[in-house]
Design brief:
CATH superfamily: Cytochrome P450
Structural class: alpha+beta
Shape: globular
CATH architecture: Orthogonal Bundle
Distance between the termini: 59 Å
Number of domains: 1
Oligomer: single chain
Helix content: 40-55%
Strand order of the largest sheet: 1-2-7-4
Bound molecules: protoporphyrin IX containing FE
Number of helices: 19
Strand content: 5-15%
Amino acid sequence: HKYWAQRNVPSLGNTSIFGNMENPLRQKHGLRGTFSNAYNEFKKRGEIHGGLYLLTQPVYMPVDHHLVKLVLSADFEYFQGHGFKVDEQKDPLLAHLFNLDGEQWKSIRTILTPTFTSGKMRIMFNTLFECTQPLVDHISDEIVISQALNLKEILSCFTMDVIVSCVFGLQSNLFKNPDAEFRKYGKQVFAGSLRIKLYTFVKFVLPSLGKLIHVKKLSAELENFFINLIRDVISYRKHNNVERKDFIQLFMELEKKAKANGRDSLTVQQIAAQSFIFFTAGFETSSMTMTFCLHELSFNQNIQDKLRHEIKSTLTKYNGELTYEALMSMQYLDLVIRETLRKYPGISFLVRGCSKDYNVPNTTVTIEKGTKVYISTWAIHRDEEFYPDAETFIPERFTEENSKKRPGFTFLPFGEGPRICIGQRFGLMLTKTGIAMLLNRFKFHPIPDQKYNLDFEPSAVNITNKGTLKLIVEEI
Ligand code: HEM
């Protein structure tokens, strides 16, 4: 715990045997709290950056937004990757975009980028939209029995239906078939099982242990399920000349183009790995964004009414139909979703691995190759300098005029720079569609005793509240 002092980098006092972390066995705020406290402390002291310790691992934190910009964008060549190593042979499904580095990352990112253009999103919109009817029907049926509904659970079923349909080209129909295999495997990845907790701990906190023992994140059963599924879907479509507006179709078109140009295309295993990250990166982030949005709207009835007014008047303009164009024209909806992502960024921090020694400009500090760099999205989004009255939900913060008043790199729900979330357009389209369809049909209120300030799962990297999230739902 002398590493940073020896390098003239400000650090925090009070290090314990856990470094600056809470006791991992009794944590209340997890890494979200660790990074957010560090940011607030460095900022209070007027520091542009600081160093902290995860157990004994020294990690670096830029605080000043100019430095954040250098790390994420301008000096990207020093901070290209997320700093995770994967062994493709041992963990085939983990060799996906998020985990890849260097040339391998660049080549897959270049191949995948054309699948997320606004033109491709427009094509996929109908496939997504088909999943909204079961959602609305389910809620209509359920409120006859009880008006207090667990929206967190309902929106997770909806999001999984959308992702399974748009990414894997299948219908999971979780409202009718709650025990579908996707749900079972989804729970293995997201539900904070011991395996996932251990994996997360080793990846973020004890990477040196990860070099000695191989901690497997995914069970062999889950790996086989996803790889065989992709193989079967592709083979079925090829043999039966089936075309569908989804990512599998886009992957198959990429393969055709690559063959025509004599280039290598993605293997089935590579497609399965990319589909798997779309599933994991897109699922909880999108479903929790909708859940938190409804939570805020239920406590802010004036904002809910204003948004509903925009949705209904837009639908009238488009003959009662929610089209891609109608959705994209809803400006207030855009502000509401952005404000939701400010207060509840899907992931509370960004991570980069330093790939070669980096001299922090205008200082004598060198960040050594191999050092992990953490940026606290959570704390930046609650920094009163950029977001006065930060705990209050104010969508107008994101009007064009108000956004221009803030410096760049202070709104980071999707990350920034070349490694910005590739699925951003899809995630926004999905969350906006869900919210628009729900507000058009239902009113939402908090259940009695519901606290406005939520408690969050400490061990999760994604932001998710503890337990359920129930709201009173009333059909209009
Ligand atoms: C509201 C929804 C979403 C949020 C808040 C979100 C957030 C993020 C964040 C913070 C990152 C890390 C960026 C960085 O390191 O700078 C990321 C990366 C990524 N996201 Fe998303 N995401 C969302 C939806 C999606 C969806 C729907 C997909 C896929 C269909 C997706 C696929 C990915 C992938 C593949 C990466 C890794 C990109 C790379 O390293 O090149 N995300 N996302």
